[in-house]
Amino acid sequence: MSPRRPERRSEESANAVIRAAMELCQEVGYRKLSIEGIAARAGVGKNTIYRWWPSKAAVLLDGLLSTWRVDASFPDTGDFAADIKAQMTAAARLLGDPDVLPHYRALIGEAQHDPELHQALWDRFIGHLAGAAVERIKAAQRAGQIRADADPVLVTELLYGAAYYRMLLTPRAVDAGHVSAVIDLALAGLAPSQG
């Protein structure tokens, strides 16, 4: 799922569509969100929306990406545990925002049935963060802070998987305490051998 289609002529109308989609999704939920409703709220025809986006999910993804200010870089203070805790806590704060979380959950749910959206979420958002995490893990391995034989992709999945499990499948929030506990527990098993 590519970003908005290039033949879009009116940035003002496109912004109105995105704003309408975000507002309506907040008001009625993703399941009741419709292209017709977005078009009516934005004051454009639904054919205009379909010229620019293939689906309501694509509009919502653009809306989230336009409001998120996600820094994919990881700090490197020399303390891997502190650095990853800081980055994961910041990500949890952003994604756990009550104005963001319902939209993000809806997109993740929709992506399970829409391969194009699934790929777009990876290409345009999650993949950048995961790649940055992998690079920070490799730096920690080079510095002897975690086991050199641990697969950095698997470590990323281990650490972030716990946060996504809590965010998507439980009523509990991902907060600094949760992030810290997960990382401390994981790093105990990732510590380099003392021998």
UniProtKB/TrEMBL annotation:
Keyword list (alphabetical) reads: DNA-binding, Transcription, Transcription regulation
**Pfam families in the record:** TetR_C_11, TetR_N
In terms of InterPro entries, this protein maps to: Homeodomain-like_sf, HTH-type_TetR-like_transc_reg, HTH_TetR, Tet_transcr_reg_TetR-rel_C_sf, TetR_C
**Taking every annotated instance into account, which residue ranges of this chain make up the domain HTH tetR-type?**
11-71
Q: Which SUPFAM superfamilies match?
A: Homeodomain-like, Tetracyclin repressor-like, C-terminal domain
Coiled-coil residue spans? none
Which N-terminal stretch is annotated as signal sequence? Answer: none
Q: Which residues cross the membrane?
A: none
Under Gene3D superfamilies, the record lists:
Homeodomain-like (1.10.10.60), Tetracycline Repressor, domain 2 (1.10.357.10)
Single GO MF descriptor: DNA-binding transcription factor activity
Residue ranges forming the DNA-binding region read 34-53
Output this protein's name: Putative HTH-type transcriptional regulator
Organism equals Actinomadura macrotermitis
